[in-house]
Amino acid sequence: MGKFGWSLPAGCGTLPGEESEGPCQVCGAFDVDDCICPECPICTEIGNPDCYDEHGLERNLKQIEGKRAYEEYIKQMTSGEIYHKEEY
Ligand SMILES: [Zn+2]
Ligand SMILES: [Zn+2]
């Protein structure tokens, strides 16, 4: 007791130059390193949903499954939050 929350050095919350883009909109990868999306041959973007609508890219099974898993996760997170709020 008493040591709680005091071991973190100040100012380490955000790293300069690091972008927080969030999960991939196509394959649902939380980390950019985990993104399995191919590079778009037209605009060279990776993980841009517009490329699948406008540039003729097609989602493969892993991308579809990844996105679905991500949406399931978000759904659980959201419902959990609502559940907790309703308890109070
Ligand atoms: Zn991706
Ligand atoms: Zn594109």
Task: Kindly describe this structure.
It is built from two helices and no strands. The longest helix has 27 residues, at 61-87. The chain has a domain at 32-87. The chain has helices at 49-54, 61-87. It is elongated and about 50 Å long. It has 88 residues and is mainly α. Helices cover 38% and strands 0% of the residues. One zinc ion binds next to loops. The site of one zinc ion has 8 residues, from loops.
In short:
The chain is mostly helical and 88 residues long.
Helix content: 25-40%
The bound ligands are:
zinc ion
Distance between the termini: 27 Å
Estimated radius of gyration: 18 Å
Could you say which overall geometry the principal axes of the C-alpha atoms support? Answer: elongated
Uncertain stretches of 5 or more adjacent residues: 11-16
Tell me what portion of residues adopts beta-strand conformation: under 5%
Number of helical elements: 2
Largest sheet: none
Q: Averaged pLDDT, please?
A: 81
Class inferred from helices and paired strands: mainly alpha
* Count of strand segments: 0
Strand and helix order:
HH
Supply database-style keywords.
elongated, single chain, binds zinc ion, 2 helices, 88 residues, mainly alpha
Give the secondary structure arrangement, pairings included.
Blueprint: H1 49-54, H2 61-87
The structure holds zinc ion (2 copies).
